[in-house]
């Protein structure tokens, strides 16, 4: 076979990614039947590229945890079922007791998302119990470092100092301890959200409820503990937040829109928050021609609560962002090519090329997937690239998939190359169809004729 020189695209001028972030304390409840509003599925103008979903207070009883170890938890399964038909794939997830963090992306972005680490930081019971704390996914997105943190901080009005201590503790524990990974404060973007449990100081219950009833939030913002802390703490001040143009999201009677009517009558508060921090840039005038400043900016499109959901004593909050960047990485490490017309009559030959800096492993594999896959383990078939290699020369490699592992179906398929060392998909093919097996039958003249 002739040597193939893979096409190398010119460097792109820029790219915009739309990211939808969700945080929700679900109070150990199961998913409701319809989450279209929360996921903004009815908004055709969004054209989202990624979902980042953080849940708190998932059911973490011993039987639930054992079940979730063997099977996907109900919330993860729900989100995958809803999002996979829209070409979203679960890229990564991490769970610590009641905390769950999920990242979904459109399949075309997979070769440009590298999972660096997933981490859990318990802060409950002197740092040994995971009922409070944070979970983190650190990734490289088109070559930029992005850290995503879902947290649950200590409750109650009097524990504000403890909340701030846990905030600092979670931040300090994020560094992965590898010399090639920068400190988290040097990451290009930190997305931090969750049930932060900050409360409204000074004002009494009646004043707070009347202010909410009349949509007079300005006085309440001034006494919000997180806003007060940001005015006093230089590091916390670097985390931005959108305007709170929605009523406090805690605490409600379950299955209602009424704030707490129990004997405790807890004061409403904006406990559920979404923050972000962009890497600090050098001062103007300090740039050098050898070190150009990368184009990387984040803008908030919407920051809202979703008051129609009543299964929990919290209302969910979402933020939609536009991330504009000039990709540092814009060529996939692996370019996959399927050879000729694919049928279920013969073994399938796959050709792929790699970039010069890609280090392959004997544990790398190529998966065959139906379009609409839920996550990377949702393959129909797979082959180890080392075991099934046919040839390798001049940067072009060929492997085969046995015909016995190819389903007879009219579905569309994708190929994904998974790098074991990078723990990520580094190449993905265009969608294609596999022609079903030809079935021989006799015609009236006695000749065998193929029938598709």
UniProtKB/TrEMBL annotation:
GO terms for molecular function: inositol bisphosphate phosphatase activity; inositol-polyphosphate 5-phosphatase activity; phosphatidylinositol-3,4,5-trisphosphate 5-phosphatase activity; phosphatidylinositol-4,5-bisphosphate 5-phosphatase activity. It comes from Pteropus vampyrus. One of its GO terms (cellular component) is endoplasmic reticulum. Its main location: cytoplasm. Belongs to the inositol 1,4,5-trisphosphate 5-phosphatase type II family. Interacts with GPR78; necessary for INPP5K localization at the endoplasmic reticulum. Interacts with PAK1; competes with GPR78. Residues 15-329 form the Inositol polyphosphate-related phosphatase domain. This is Inositol polyphosphate 5-phosphatase K. Inositol 5-phosphatase which acts on inositol 1,4,5-trisphosphate, inositol 1,3,4,5-tetrakisphosphate, phosphatidylinositol 4,5-bisphosphate and phosphatidylinositol 3,4,5-trisphosphate. Has 6-fold higher affinity for phosphatidylinositol 4,5-bisphosphate than for inositol 1,4,5-trisphosphate. Negatively regulates assembly of the actin cytoskeleton. Controls insulin-dependent glucose uptake among inositol 3,4,5-trisphosphate phosphatases; therefore, is the specific regulator for insulin signaling in skeletal muscle. It is found in: Cytoplasm; Endoplasmic reticulum.
């Amino acid at each position: 076979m002739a040597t193939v020189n893979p096409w190398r695209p010119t460097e792109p001028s820029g790219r915009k990614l739309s990211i939808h972030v969700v945080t929700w304390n679900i109070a150990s409840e199961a998913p409701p039947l319809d989450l279209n509003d929360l996921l903004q599925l009815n908004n055709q103008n969004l054209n989202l590229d990624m979902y980042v979903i953080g849940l708190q207070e998932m059911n973490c009883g011993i039987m639930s945890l054992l079940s979730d170890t063997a099977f996907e938890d109900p919330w993860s399964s729900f989100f995958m079922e809803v999002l996979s038909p829209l070409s979203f794939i679960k890229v990564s997830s991490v769970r610590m007791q009641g905390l769950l963090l999920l990242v979904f992306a459109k399949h075309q972005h997979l070769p440009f998302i590298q999972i660096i680490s997933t981490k859990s930081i318990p802060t409950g019971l002197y740092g040994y119990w995971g009922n409070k704390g944070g979970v983190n996914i650190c990734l490289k997105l088109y070559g930029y470092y992005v850290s995503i943190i879902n947290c649950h901080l200590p409750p109650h009005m009097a524990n504000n100092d403890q909340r701030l201590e846990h905030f600092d503790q979670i931040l300090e524990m994020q560094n992965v301890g590898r010399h090639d990974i920068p400190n988290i404060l040097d990451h290009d973007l930190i997305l931090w959200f969750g049930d932060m449990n900050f409360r409204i100081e000074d004002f009494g219950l009646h004043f707070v409820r009347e202010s909410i009833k009349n949509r007079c939030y300005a006085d309440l913002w001034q006494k919000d503990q997180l806003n007060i802390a940001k005015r006093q703490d230089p590091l916390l001040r670097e985390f931005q937040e959108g305007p709170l143009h929605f009523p406090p999201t805690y605490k409600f009677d379950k299955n209602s829109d009424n704030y707490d009517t129990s004997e405790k009558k807890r004061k409403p508060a904006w406990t559920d928050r979404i923050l972000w921090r962009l890497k600090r840039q050098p001062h103007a005038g300090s740039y050098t021609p050898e070190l150009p400043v990368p184009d990387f900016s984040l803008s908030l499109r919407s920051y809202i609560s979703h008051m129609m959901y009543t299964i929990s004593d919290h209302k969910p909050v979402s933020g939609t962002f536009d991330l504009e960047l000039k990709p540092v990485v814009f060529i996939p490490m692996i370019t996959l090519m399927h050879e000729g017309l694919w049928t279920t009559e013969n073994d399938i030959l796959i050709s792929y090329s790699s970039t010069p800096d890609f280090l392959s492993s004997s544990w790398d594999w190529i998966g065959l997937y139906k379009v609409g896959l839920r996550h990377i383990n949702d393959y129909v078939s797979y082959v180890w690239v080392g075991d099934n290699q046919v040839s390798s020369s001049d940067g072009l490699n060929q492997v085969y998939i046995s015909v016995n592992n190819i389903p007879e179906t009219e579905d569309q398929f994708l190929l994904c190359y998974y790098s074991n060392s990078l723990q990520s998909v580094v190449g993905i093919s265009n969608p294609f169809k596999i022609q079903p097996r030809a079935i021989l039958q006799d015609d009236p003249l006695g000749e065998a004729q193929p029938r598709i």
